[in-house]
Amino acid sequence: MDLVLILTLQGVVAIATILLFSIGLAIIFGMMRVINLAHGEFMMIGAYGAVKSHEAGLNLWVAMLVVAPLVAALFGLVVERVLIRHLYGRLIDTLLATWGLSLFTVGVVTMIFGNTTSGVPTPLGTLRIGDYGLGQYNLVIVGVTLLVLALVALVLKRTSAGVLARATMQNPEMIAALGYNPRRIYAATFAIGSGLAGLAGGLLAPLTGVIPAMGVAFVAKAFITVISGGAAVILGTGTAAAIYGVISQSVTYVSTSVIGEASLFLAAIILLRLLPNGFAGRFFKGGV
Amino acid sequence: MLNTENLVVRFGGVFALGGVDFAMTKGEVHCLVGPNGAGKSTFFKVVTGQIAPTSGRVSLGGSDITGEGSAQIVRRGIGIKMQTPQLFDDMTVEDTIWLGAYRGRGKAHARRRTAELLDELRLGEVARAEVGKLAHGLRQRVEIASVLAGDPELILLDEPAAGMSDADVDFLAALILRLRGQHSFLVVEHDMRFIRMIADRVTVFHNGKIFLEGRSDAVLSDQGVKDIYLGKGKAHA
Amino acid sequence: MPQTFAPRHAGTLATSVLILGAAVVLPQTLGLFTLLQLTVYAVMAILALSLSITWGLGGVLCFGQAAFFGLGGYTYAVAVTNFGESTLPILLAVLVQALVALCLGWFMFMGRLSDLYVGVVTLCTSLILFNFANSTSDPWYRIGSAALNGFNGMPAIRGINIPFLPGALLSPVQSFVLTMLALLAVYLLCKTIAGSSWGRVVAATRQNPLRAELMGYDTARVKLGIFVIGSAVAGFAGCLFVNWNGFVSPDVFGLSMSAQIMIWMIVGGRETFVGPIVGAFALQALVSRLGVGSEINANVVLGGLLMIFVVLVPRGILPTVRDGLLSLGRKWGPGKTREVN
């Protein structure tokens, strides 16, 4: 019984983690048709923001929940202006250029901070369930993920922001004629996606350790989750995260975490073959 | 040679085609007309294998081709030209036509056929030009040449005259009249002048059904058909 | 005869002579260290050409070219350790990859996956191999007498010998000559494919799959064919890499490996076959120079170049320079046909 409970909890944590580090990418892909392969580096920058500000004496929670997303969002604003805006409408090129950005950022951060692991202590203690234990911090991650999802859903559903962003990608002149500033909409969308990546980086920093190349561990999984999700930011990405989280967690339980990760990729290959339009194309047409 | 039986296409709850029985015989030039949304484009897409019908049957020369993809249908001897030109922009005119002729017939045939068609469609001067750099009318002509290159028995054209100058339209009409012995044509078209020049028979679509089918002159002078185009069609349907 | 895809003979000849000349002359003029470096550059140039076939010519967006490169290396390493002779292992490195690509490609192209999905699936494949190879440390993971050794990699792998003479291992200089000849052969293979009738069908499929289908070509099969050839060449490069290195580890499957190949191609010029070769040589030379006593991280340079080229010079160096020269030529000289290649 305890085992079932702990495994369920671990599954939920795994799903929440995937969702947390994918949602920023999902927003940028879903709204702007830009694939940001430097997504992992936005996380890394958020993580460094959290670590360095904590080292400078800032409260850990403020560092993770406020500084991390802010730093990454600012970086996102710069990147959008300098790089991404030249590439709207060229999906494959955004992918290649941001791959370059990813290498570039890893290199620059290595030159500044060195190729060493910095870390922050994992806050909170361990939750005991019978003979088993689970870090309470993991539950914080689940909580924050739910909160972020709720906020994103609210913004997309209840306000016209989502529609506006999508419409801007399709017809910027029209949006300009309606009195909105397309440049500002692009910048805002990209910055929000980047900020969410930074938040994920900050929150995961205590669990993973922080090194310049930490993004690599996330970007492929985030990319795959988002692409399998398809056009619906929350429902699609959510379903994909749930499936991949459960599969990799179960396989990890019966073998090793490396094989668990490999099983995630294998599941992705099979899913893409079965649903060539992603979950959104199959089940959630027109949803968010 | 091309027949459909009780063809139905439904998008969600809307009937785009509500049971179409269509037949055309070998050697004729057959035009499909009708106001926007009448179902002629949907019909064209089903026949060319771009969408599968909800129910019903498409057959070519007696064999069932319902639900086959475009490539399969083409390999059965149908040539297809869609509404927006589909071309290889970085390729030369010559190569484009060559590719149409090469499949299944080999290099020697392809070379000969390319030369013939460059001549026949008066494309010799631009043979070495890149297709992407040509004017719209010429691009349409290149695409038609590449379709002819496959020597199809039946050629399906979706609004071939759209966006063309009068001179280009005249050229195309003359070409179709010259080729009608060797190929049959099924043409979706709006341009009445063009239809009058080429059509043997005309089928009028209205509200997803065939409204009238018959000899070109009879159909085009029909009062009901004129009413449909002027928006009074409901009374007759 | 249509001209576009016929090989531009003068350019091809010049390139071939250049590669051949380097293979003959350089061993006499350069030191061993430089030759060893040039050997691995040439191996990577072959790898770059393999992606030129798959992506440049075939338009198949393959983010996992490293999968075939790495598998080729592992196939060779395992086979040569078992056989004690290199002829069959080289063949296996090529054939196994062709077979793997056939299966994977069948799955992708017959399922009509979009370009982007093909990219994701190939990426996943290389990541699966990376994870798997890393988790084979247990001595249980062995094929015949070859232990896979997990993340530590397989050390001390036999090099290539003269066919069927296990005693006659190639010297480093001979390996250099062999690699250059292999580069020449692969380059000529690329040119032959591009210039053939089938190559024209491949180009047509890349440029407009719909029109190619409407001409009756089976585009799925065309893509499958080009994918198999490109992957087999990548496997060959992997085998040559292990011959040079004497060692293979899971890093050959890594993301940065796949990224590098794309960078060489994009910087050199993805529309040509010489471009990726030039890109591979130039960028590796640049990176190895940066590696020695420099403050600048190689990733900064590679990443920066990739961004700059995608945004500002999307066609890459060679086509841009060629067109520049051509427009100059048109201004100054009598109209010459395109021969720079």
What does this structure look like?
The complex is a heterotrimer of chains A (288), B (237) and C (341). Chain A has one domain. Helix content of chain A is 76%, strand content 3%. Chain A contains twelve helices and two strands. In chain A, strands 1-2 form a two-stranded antiparallel sheet. In chain A, strand 1 and strand 2 form a beta hairpin. Chain A starts with a helix and ends in a 5-residue tail after the last helix. Chain B is an alpha/beta fold and 237 residues long. Chain B has two domains: 2-77 and 153-236, 3-Layer(aba) Sandwich (Rossmann fold); 87-151, no CATH class. Chain B has ten helices and ten strands. In chain B, the strands form two sheets. A six-stranded mixed sheet of chain B has the order 6-7-8-3-9-10, sandwiched between helices. Chain B starts with a strand and ends with a helix. With 341 residues, chain C is mostly helical. Chain C has one domain (9-255). Chain C has 13 helices and two strands; from the N terminus they run H-H-H-H-H-E-E-H-H-H-H-H-H-H-H. Chain C has helices spanning 9-29, 32-57, 65-83, 87-109, 115-134, 172-195, 197-207, 209-214, 219-245, 255-268, 274-291, 298-312, 317-332, and strands spanning 142-143, 146-147. In chain C, strands 1-2 form a two-stranded antiparallel sheet. In chain C, helix 3 (65-83) packs antiparallel against helix 4 (87-109). Classes of the chains: A mainly alpha (288), B alpha/beta (237), C mainly alpha (341). Chains A and C meet through helix 4, helix 9 and helix 11 of A and helix 5, helix 10 and helix 12 of C.
Main sheet properties of chain A: 2 strands, antiparallel
Give the number of domains of chain C.
1
Number of strands of chain A: 2
Shape of chain C: globular
Query: Multimeric state of these chains?
Result: heterotrimer
Integer-rounded radius of gyration of chain A:
19 Å
Ends apart, CA distance between termini of chain C:
20 Å
CA-CA gap between termini of chain A: 37 Å
Q: What is the string of helix and strand elements of chain A?
A: HHHHEEHHHHHHHH
State the strand order across the main sheet of chain C. Answer: 1-2
Report mean pLDDT of chain C, rounded to a whole number: 86
Strand content of chain C: under 5%
Count of helical regions of chain A: 12
